[in-house]
Amino acid sequence: MCNLHKLQLFYDFGNFMFKIYPLILCLVIFAKPSLADNSIVVQSTTSTYNSGFYDYILPLMKSETNIMAHVVSVGTGAALKNAANCDGDVIIVHAKNRELEFVKNGNGVNRQNLMYNDFVIIGSKRNPAKINISDDPIKAFSKIYNSSSVFVSRGDDSGTHFKEMSIWRKANLDPTQFSGGWYRETGSGMGTTLNLANGMEAYTLTDRASWIKFNNKKNLDVIAEKDKLLFNQYGITMVNPLKCPNVRLKNTKIFINWLLSEKGQKAIKNFKIKGQQLFFPNAN
Length: 284
Fold this sequence. Notes:
Blueprint: H1 2-30, E1 39-44, H2 46-50, H3 53-65, E2 68-73, H4 76-84, E3 90-93, H5 96-104, E4 108-124, H6 137-147, E5 151-153, H7 159-170, E6 183-185, H8 190-200, E7 204-207, H9 208-213, E8 220-224, E9 231-239, H10 249-260, H11 262-269, E10 272-273, E11 276-277, E12 280-281
Parallel strand pairs: 1-2, 1-3, 5-6
Antiparallel strand pairs: 3-9, 4-7, 4-8, 4-9, 4-12, 10-11
């Protein structure tokens, strides 16, 4: 009887496992993989990612600190939203007022300057709006508006889009009323927007790093630049661990401290493409 009892238990257990095995298999396949103990998630603007900055600097950091950063490349608005939802450990974006608001709302801790470059106004080499290279951004945008020259906007709530809209506001102009006409909104990243501007021989605003990296410049040129209104500051902020307990506090501190250190700032300074420096370190 004892052996028969054991046999019955074995049979019942095997039948149970057969029934739940598909469920176990699904859980294994679709379970979200956990990050390594030395990892962090960086919510980042697309301009730093597309420039190749992370491909350059993250291996240097890992060799020094053993921290492995996984970068989520989205527009500044999306990066801030993701981080506010506790999806990430640190943000690197370029819209200072929005970053300070992010901290004020309890979503981030200790926003600091990291590096800067500038924006440039790009346009068709034919330059139908007759913009001079020395025109300030307000004058340049006014000429585009008054001539109804095609302008391609990212329209994606990114840092670049935020800067563009701030210039229109300073010029007391609203181009969105002509959306679909001479004012085209792509809802896409900088690379796609530049490609569309090239194809349509249109004007657009871009960060200089993206412009330097961009290769499809057949119909485009820098139309206006080097104005204080085109200053482009990048900041770095830790996601608030009191709001988001999943923040990898130790790793995030190491990551931020290295980028802000003398060694990290020197590495940023040394990042060049086609012999041109893309970002200029200015940690606090």
